[in-house]
Write the structure tokens for this entry.
Amino acid sequence: MYEVLFESIQEGLILVDNNGVIVDNNATAEELFGFTSKELIGEKIELLVPVKQRKKHKGERSGYHKNPQKRSMGSTLKLNGQRKDGSVFPVEVSLNPLKDDRGDSFVVALVSDVSIRREAEDQLEQLTYTLENKVRERTRELRESEQLYKSIARNFPGGVISIFDRNFKYLFAEGQGLYDLGIETNDLIGLDYLERIVPAAREQVEKELLCVFGGEYRDFEVEVGARTYALSAVPLKNEEDEIDKILVVEKNITDQKRMEQKLELNLEKERELNEMKSRFVSMASHEFRTPLTTINSSAGLILKYNERSNPQKIEKHILRIKSAVRNLTSILNDFLSLEKLESGKINPVLKDSDLVEVLNETCEDLSELKKNGQHIKYSGPALLQVHSDPQLIKNIILNLLSNAIKYSPEESVIDVIVKELEDHVVLVVRDKGIGIPKSDQGRMFDRFFRAGNVSNIEGTGLGLNIVGRYLNLTKGEISFESEEGKGTTFTVKFPKNLKNQSL
């Protein structure tokens, strides 16, 4: 199971010991760098670093092992890797230190090929650099002659180059932006520039341009409704070395702004995904260790007790193995559900079903999970037809009930109450367990968050986040009340009929 998880990670995963020696890797790492696993294992990690940077990397690696900590590199730094064929490509690397059962230190490196993103950043940087150079070039040439101004400005792409006197009257205006609006240059000469600006932006523009008349160079942006304009303004001196005019380059950068925002959003999503995967590796190494150790030790003891014909102790350890397997399955289900939700692969499948029947099936599924003496008490109608997605509803109930069982003591009662309203169904799950600290209640639906009083109980911190997302898909809502040491009550509300609602 761990091997399946190890190989399913889409980033290259490389496990390095305290001496910088590669001890394991997944198939993605082989694809990224062109080496086979046999060629990588036993080699120094510098094998995957460009030759010119290996000496420096070795020193940085030594420093990192003295103070290992989680680190994401490449989002701000430009890092590169080197393939077996000697080609170099841009990468982003996430480092995660860990220790095994013997106390040996390792580092898990998640490596992503960011060639496409680097190319987009370089293109944007080159575009900005080119535009700035064009503005500087046109500014110098405009100082030489008005005829040269027109020659340059008339071909200025997607914008306008203008010259104003101290009263903000047009002395000159050219550019493709004018032709796009159907405006001739002669129509503007002598008009007041500020009067042509919408009132919401007029004060900002006037303040900036007054600074230019004071001898400053100004670059600023102005928002006009849904459009954004970039203005670059420089002072122009006469023969007496006095500033009597200003040159303003105006360009509509709305599309560029949208592209930047989209790029930033994509980068943020990529960072969140990398962080989530880093957390998964860290959590998997911790959460999987306990149940796997239990399974291993119990399997050995079963063999031992089998030789002694001790069926009672064999049964005890079989139950321990089953419990450990359930814990592993629960962790995997949480991550698989989250992955499907993140990728938009879950769509509600609406059909008629009996909510009470779904509830009874869920209780049967959880019968082996209940602690000694625990009892689920149901209160509500014997039959309740709903038109929704029964599997999503079952997953919601399963999560809430398994939490109630997990965090409640033995010999306790868990109340399940169903109420039918005119258009909605209310489901209440109430336990008398450990409760949720007041300081943690605001974050209970965050990914990977777990309350401070459950550190010794297995869990991923994803369950309630997944429940909230399921309820979004079924147009439902959830709330809870809790007091530490006295228990928690979760209340779920969702429509009885989703047939005519947009999902």
About this structure: The mean pLDDT is 82. The domain at 2-113 is CATH 3.30.450.20 (Beta-Lactamase). The first helix runs from residue 2 to 8.
